[in-house]
Amino acid sequence: MPDQSSSAAPATVVLAGATGALGLLIAHHLRQRGATVRALIRPASIHKAEAESLRVQGVEVVAVDYNSLPDLTQACAEAACVVSALSGLRDTIVDTQTRLLDAAVAAGVPRFIPSDYSADFTKLPEGSNRNFDLRREFQQRLDQAPIQATSILNGMFMDLLKGQAPVILPGPHRVVYWGDADQPLDFTTMVDTANFTAAAALDPTTPRYLRVAGEVASIRELQAIASAALGHPFMLFRAGSLGTLATMIKVTRTLMPAPNEIFPPWQGMQYLHNMLSGVAKLDRLDNARYPDIRYTKVGEILG
Ligand SMILES: NC(=O)c1ccc[n+]([C@@H]2O[C@H](COP(=O)([O-])OP(=O)(O)OC[C@H]3O[C@@H](n4cnc5c(N)ncnc54)[C@H](OP(=O)(O)O)[C@@H]3O)[C@@H](O)[C@H]2O)c1
User: Fold this and answer.
1) What's the CATH code of the domain at 127?
2) Is 294 a member of any domain?
3) For residue 194, is it within any domain?
4) pLDDT digit string, tens, across residues 53-79
5) How far is the CA of 263 from the centre of ligand 1 (A)?
6) Which residues of the chain have pLDDT under 50?
7) CB of 210 sitting under 6 A from ligand 1
């Protein structure tokens, strides 16, 4: 495990998107690990319950105009790392994150963690996932900036298996899939992703990419896990080939384009396609890098 205790003063980590679902968890784990946390929050959100919860945890809450490079630069001063947990479309993932990156560089911050937290989008072709295209676009800017960057790749949030991702269906006792039931898939809970991110933010020796998966399981293994965790047998339901899923994505996107939604149904289907095809599979896992983290398994969140 890299030495995180070499400096006497606790490291300051600047956190963007701290009022979000993942951001709040990252802030919590940073505090648990002894970091000083400065949360950058849009003025309109400064009175939200999430901002108050951050203050209660001892986080320094700073209202910042994300359109102002001088304000952002001042807010990044003295930080050891800037962590982004922003969520959005082009204006946020490309434009706002670029301003945050420019500010981090201007303030002399040595390290930057972008808001990736996903399957391995670096291996996907353009157009296969709208949200990942935006991350690759930002990645190009990040890789040209004079700052040490680390992306956290964690597969799908395991929590989504409890409902939002239509894979394990507790009603009809089916596990739905397209393509190959034996393709390994990566899952990590939001809590474990946040804990790993906090550890990485305080680790000056991180490489460009860190890959983590709380559990790697195929559809067939998910069937066994769901059957054991929920106490009744689940059947597999193959809805078609990956080509069928690709057609369904096109049809759904045409009928329900929802261009301003971050996670419209067709984008969730793109995510499933990326995973079920194996293209976005995480190659080599860095789970053991922070040995204090105990990873939650799929059976634990289903049961
Ligand atoms: N791997 C997976 O399965 C998976 C699933 C879901 C999410 N994710 C990823 O996890 C990351 C965090 O997502 P989340 O669900 O935690 O997001 P979230 O709950 O929607 O929170 C988004 C955060 O970003 C802030 N924000 C949004 N647009 C902004 C802007 N233009 N300027 C400044 N702040 C802005 C929000 O601030 P306000 O409070 O001011 O609105 C909020 O703090 C994203 O990269 C997302 O794609 C991964």
Assistant:
1) 3.40.50.720
2) no
3) yes
4) 999 999 999 999 999 999 999 999 999
5) 11
6) 1-7
7) no
